[in-house]
Specification:
alpha+beta; 5-stranded mixed beta sheet; 5 strands; DUF2188 domain-containing protein
Length: 120
């Protein structure tokens, strides 16, 4: 039975979303080639993790910076913020989620506009 984003092997549940989607894609292709299910899962998981370690999809780049009286997170080439927060701590928390879930990098700036760090 082919897997999808709602129905996939339990062993893939802790993979990051994009890595899991890649593992599902690979596993389904291996099943089509008549691989045994357990072997397809193991190979697909290993290959998807390697794919993610090698950079996976092109990483999105975001900026976290002070805009007026709020902390804003937006794509580096965008004019509008994707997210705004009253506190920097809340913005950093969201930035970490973006880095993990979207394989994104976030450049974090201080209130004075100088770059503080990056989250990958």
């Amino acid at each position: 039975m082919p897997w999808n984003s709602r129905n996939y092997p339990d062993s893939m549940k802790n993979l990051p979303k994009q890595t899991r989607e890649k593992a599902i894609e690979i596993a389904n292709a291996l099943l089509d080639e008549q691989y045994e299910e357990g072997r397809a899962i193991a190979i697909a998981t290993a290959q998807a993790e390697k794919w993610a370690d090698d950079g996976g999809p092109a990483a999105e780049e975001y900026l976290l910076q002070k805009k007026d009286d709020k902390w804003a997170i937006g794509k580096e080439d965008s004019k509008r913020a994707s997210y705004t927060f009253h506190t920097k701590a809340d913005a950093v928390k969201k930035a970490r989620e973006l880095a993990r879930e979207k394989n994104a990098s976030v450049k974090v700036y201080k209130e004075d506009g100088s770059q503080e760090t990056a989250i990958n």
